[in-house]
Specification:
The structure is a single chain. This protein is an alpha+beta fold and 128 residues long. The chain has a single domain, classed as CBS-domain, CATH 3.10.580.10. 34% of the residues lie in helices and 23% in strands. The protein contains five helices and six strands. It has a four-stranded mixed beta sheet with strand order 1-2-3-4. The chain starts with 13 loop residues before the first strand and ends with a helix.
């Protein structure tokens, strides 16, 4: 039996606006213990900010109190749908060199976050 994305409990996906400061993004991620946030504009997913993006920005000397999420986000991120096979998603993550994918509905609305850690848990159980 093939495991679909909808069979894996997706992580909670926080939503922020493009003009949210990087400091606020980091604070939200820490408070909610999440690895990434979706950047939304007018109800549309326009980017994603991950822990890796935050570390890179700080290392590059970006002022987190002034710089905004849209400066460091990965624009137009790859996404997955609920009916995609997790084995295919794992290959997609590897090919793209990413560890987080927003799960979106057919309408493109983000409903969760799928991480490489989530996929590993499924693969370790022999589900995919």
């Amino acid at each position: 039996m093939k495991v679909k994305v909808k069979d894996v409990p997706p992580g909670r996906l926080l939503l922020v606006e493009p003009q949210t400061t990087i400091a606020e993004v980091a604070r939200l991620m820490r408070v909610d213990d999440c690895d990434a946030v979706a950047v939304m504009s007018r109800g549309r997913l326009v980017g994603i900010v991950t822990e890796k993006d935050l570390v890179q920005a700080i290392a590059d000397g970006v002022n987190p109190q002034q710089a905004k999420a849209d400066l460091i986000m990965s624009a137009d991120p790859a996404t997955v749908g609920p009916d995609e096979d997790v084995a295919v998603v794992a290959v997609k993550m590897t090919r793209l060199g990413i560890r987080h994918l927003p799960v979106v509905t057919e309408d493109g609305e983000p409903v969760g976050l799928l991480s490489a850690r989530d996929l590993l848990a499924v693969l370790e159980k022999g589900g995919a």
